[in-house]
Write a structure and sequence with these properties.
This protein has 146 residues and is an alpha+beta fold. It has four helices and eight strands, in the order E-H-E-H-E-E-E-H-E-E-H-E. The radius of gyration is 16 Å and the shape is globular.
């Protein structure tokens, strides 16, 4: 069974900055995380695939998993060299995702697709049995959940 991964969302990820960022970054240096998502042919220009995800309501979402790799070609075809998951805006809107919240991906081998959910930062603060002021968000990117 594949592990689950969680990413703390930034303002760029959720669109709160008003920018036109194309999805959440998947770090190239995290080989284990790259193995969690479908394999892309790095010799191809901007290889991509669609990943099917199911949210807690049972709604299915298709997100584009892409390796923008134009910088790796000679001569360079672009300035980018990064993996991203795109087409997530409607999902974030449905679940009210904001910066500081997390998106969690789990792979379901039984159904051959990913499960996806938003963990709201406010809910995590409520789970701590003490009353305290909200702390600044410390962004740590992706982490293995289990």
């Amino acid at each position: 069974m594949k592990k689950s991964y969680e990413k703390v969302l930034t303002k760029n990820d959720t669109g709160e900055t008003g920018g036109h960022q194309a999805g959440i970054v998947v770090p190239k240096k995290n080989a284990e995380l790259l193995e969690f998502f479908p394999t892309l042919n790095v010799d191809e220009f901007n290889p991509d695939t669609w990943i099917l995800c199911e949210d807690p309501d049972g709604e299915h979402w298709k997100f584009r998993y892409v390796y923008y790799n134009g910088k790796t070609f000679s001569p360079a075809k672009s300035t980018r060299n990064e993996y991203r998951i795109t087409h997530m805006t409607k999902f974030f809107v449905k679940w009210g995702a904001n910066s500081g919240d997390s998106v969690m991906f789990s792979y379901s081998e039984q159904f051959n697709h990913y499960k996806i959910q938003i963990k709201h930062r406010d809910e995590e603060l409520k789970d701590t049995n003490s009353v305290r002021e909200p702390q600044p968000v410390v962004l740590k990117g992706w982490r293995t959940v289990y």
